[in-house]
Design a protein that fits this description.
The protein has 762 residues and is an alpha/beta fold. It comes from Petromyces alliaceus.
Length: 762
């Protein structure tokens, strides 16, 4: 079996079941740098202002359930008409969702928050004098529009802060504090005075305080939109930003979770009092206080549970909470005792408390910077749309079938919320350079996928699990055939980013994939390497000369699929291709073949590559610059983070049933974002080492094969002296892959410095 030229490690990624990763033995033990957070002025003032904004929204939302009996009797309407209030709220959130990207093109954060606070003040001004019912309905549109602008953007800002999950716990606890206070004041005013609308003097007063706090705390965001943002927006219009945001599966999956969760909580709070009065025959003046138990529990849950939820893994913990909530809702429904129901609803509030915090925290990590604001705003508003639709539908059904329908609806919604947080289970893992970077990206883009890693070292397995709490770690290596085969059988998508000459592992993957069915095929994404294309240099034993031969993966795919048998990696590629040919309905294959991979990795362990890195190390140890032959040979290259983007696009296409990607015989993907002449690379490395004072001269001298082979393992002169020129067409044309990271030559100084520091530690 031929030794591998690959720079990568193994990943087996599965969308709904499991995955395996085998790290290289040479992986470094450096952990990734801690993410940088913005340095803000008046950060506590801003956080407090955001908390007050959520408190105002909580008072508004939490009071409606207690006011519903008074609204029905005062306006002489039935539950059908009350449902219109939720319909008006839905329209407000919908309008906000559609206009958010446009408004952020023209207004900075401060004016947007003030606009939202202002709409809420206007709504409460119109409500306080018992307006005609049509005008009263319109105020709910204004209030929800204001909440959408105010709270959605406060969410985005707070989630970007250091320890954002804790700050999110605070502001969302403030929302529940408002929900807790609202029913008490609404019931007290409604039961003591026929003018129940006087209650709105309270949210009006705190709404004015909210407006003032926003204006003062966010005064440094009151100016025009920053130039940097305007430059970015010049290349991404509002409509394009909306389209790009909505094209991300993670946005829709997180939105679906909020859609059901807020549908359940707002439906419960809105109709609970009417249910207790009509079904349990409770006194309206007493039942109006029971929603406060739910909101009080949620207030404590949002204060106390975000930290353990974050540490133990949001997805896993939210699913556990959802199961508990369904059980408590069943107790509320099936046990006809008001005291028991009050306790059950309070505990339900407690365990559902961290749902919102966990979702926004996950969203802040997985959405890329250019869409984070619009994505979180959309997720939040889409959830509120669910909180408007389901209460309205409940009211309409209740008008026909009675308010007893509330309980089965709530059980269904809570169950759907729990299921949605478990959707698209995926497992993967990585500890090496390329695999580690891809795991970093995947875990943030698709936290809803289950992730597993096959790791050979127990200590590294523990470290990996600590960084990724939701990760499932399996001890093993490429020779663990039984483990790999079983994992592949359970997998929907398999990423193989491993030793691309390990025929045993490839055969095991093919065997496991063959156990799938046409209804549930296995998508195998195998990583090879363009060292398979240097056979002309290896046959002729030429080094440092220029060859003009260039390969592409579009009209040249047949040539790639039929490379000579003495080409590197060919044995394994033939196994993967054959696996898809035996039964293409059950096994879908794609081969990704990267050239020289470079750039800083974002993984837990190994964060550096090989070619330019090994060369830099050779120069530093030798204290002289080197050149191989004439230095005219050319290698194509790809930044590791651009390569991870391609892996992600292929996985998302597989998750969508194949998407626009090509699979099977033509599913061969070269990936590059330019090329370098290696004589220029060698001179740049010598120059950088000289300018940093590591070597005495920037000059280069020829390096013979007898000197490089012992230093550079078995690769000999081919690593630095061969030609490998490719063009990536398929990924760009079909998947919209757009590599944009800097070329390798711009990173030479960083590469040399990194290797110098690594040598000092040895």
């Amino acid at each position: 079996m031929r030794k591998s030229l690959t720079q990568t490690e193994a990943i087996l990624l599965q969308r709904r079941a499991s995955a395996i990763v085998i790290p290289p033995e040479s992986a470094a033990d450096d952990l990734p740098e801690e993410p940088k957070y913005p340095q803000e002025k008046w950060i506590y003032s801003k956080a407090f202002s955001a908390g007050v904004s959520f408190f105002v929204a909580g008072v508004n939302d939490g009071s409606l359930g207690s006011l519903t009996p008074y609204i029905i009797r005062s306006y002489n309407v039935d539950t059908n008409m009350v449902a219109i209030l939720y319909g008006s709220t839905f329209l407000g959130w919908l309008f906000a969702a559609l206009s958010n990207s446009t408004i952020t093109q023209y207004l900075n954060l401060g004016p947007i928050l003030c606009l939202g606070a202002g709409f809420q003040v206007i709504a409460h001004v119109l409500r306080v004098w018992t307006p005609p019912f049509p005008l009263y309905v319109i105020t709910f549109f204004l209030a929800s529009l204001g909440q959408a602008y105010n709270d959605a953007h406060a969410n985005t800002y707070i989630s970007s802060l250091r320890a954002g999950h804790r700050w999110l716990g605070f502001i969302h606890a403030m929302y529940m504090a408002g929900c807790l206070v609202g029913p008490f004041i609404a019931t007290a005013v409604g039961s003591a005075n026929s003018q129940w609308c006087l209650f709105y003097l309270f949210p009006l007063g705190i709404g004015l305080i909210n407006l003032a706090l926003v204006a003062v705390s966010f005064r440094d965001y009151m100016g025009p939109t920053p130039k940097k943002q305007l430059m970015a927006e010049s290349s991404m219009s509002a409509l394009k930003e909306i389209g790009y945001t909505l094209s991300k599966p993670g946005v829709w999956l997180l939105s679906l979770f909020f859609f059901f969760f807020l549908g359940a909580t707002i439906t419960s709070g809105g109709w609970m009092v009417e249910y207790l009065v009509q079904v349990r025959k409770g006194d309206v003046t007493e039942m109006g206080y029971i929603p406060s138990g739910f909101y009080g529990g949620a207030f404590l849950g949002r204060l106390l549970l975000p930290e353990p939820t974050h540490r133990l893994g949001e997805r896993k913990m939210v699913f556990i909470y959802a199961v508990l909530c369904v059980g408590l809702q069943l107790v509320f429904w099936l046990v006809p005792n008001i005291i028991t129901e009050a306790v059950a609803i309070s505990l339900l509030g407690f365990f559902s408390g961290p749902f919102m915090v966990a979702g926004i925290s996950v969203g802040s990590r997985i959405f890329s910077p250019e869409i984070k604001s619009s994505a979180i705003a959309f997720v939040f508003t889409f959830g509120q749309i669910g909180g408007s639709i389901f209460p309205a539908v409940t009211g309409i059904i209740a008008a026909q079938a009675g308010v007893e329908v509330l309980q089965p609806i709530l059980v269904g919604l809570l169950g759907a919320a729990g299921i949605s947080c478990r959707a698209d289970k995926t497992r993967t893992g990585a500890t090496g350079y390329v695999g580690g970077d891809f795991l970093f990206l995947l875990s943030r883009t698709h936290p809803e996928w289950n992730i597993s890693a096959l790791v050979r070292d127990e200590e590294k397995a523990k470290q990996l699990a600590k960084v990724y709490p939701s990760l499932r770690v399996v001890l093993g290596d490429l020779s663990s055939s039984d483990i790999i085969e079983e994992e592949v059988k359970q997998a929907d998508i398999v990423y193989q980013i491993a030793n691309c000459d390990h025929t045993g592992a490839a055969a095991t993957i093919a065997k496991g994939a063959a156990c799938h069915t046409a209804e549930r095929p296995c998508w195998v994404i195998h990583t090879s390497g363009t060292a398979s294309l240097i056979f002309e240099d290896t046959r002729a034993q030429t080094h440092g000369i220029e060859r003009t031969k260039e390969y592409n993966d579009w009209d040249g795919v047949d040539e790639l699929r039929n490379l000579p048998d003495d080409a590197y990696h060919r044995d394994v590629e033939k196994i993967i291709i054959a696996a898809g040919q035996v039964d293409p309905a059950r096994v879908k294959t794609a081969i990704v073949s990267p050239p020289n991979v470079y750039g800083p990795g974002r993984g837990v362990f190994n964060q550096t590559s090989m070619q330019a890195y090994y060369l830099s190390r050779k120069v530093l140890k030798r204290k002289k610059g080197i050149i191989v032959g004439e230095g005219k040979n050319v290698w194509s290259e790809v930044h590791v983070q651009d390569l991870s983007d391609l892996f992600l696009l292929l996985g998302e296409a597989a998750a969508a049933g194949g998407g626009d990607a090509t699979w099977g015989d033509d599913g061969y993907y070269l990936c590059e974002n330019g090329e370098s002449v290696w004589g220029e690379v060698e001179r740049a490395i010598a120059r950088a080492a000289y300018e940093k004072g590591y070597i005495p001269s920037p000059e280069v001298e020829p390096l013979g094969e007898g000197e490089v082979v012992p230093t550079n393992l078995w690769y000999g002169l081919y690593l630095w002296g061969s030609n490998c020129r490719v063009r990536s067409i398929r990924a760009k044309r079909l998947l919209g892959w757009k590599p944009f990271r800097p070329p390798m030559m711009e990173l030479i100084e960083d590469i040399v410095e990194g290797e110098a520091q690594a040598l000092k530690k040895e």
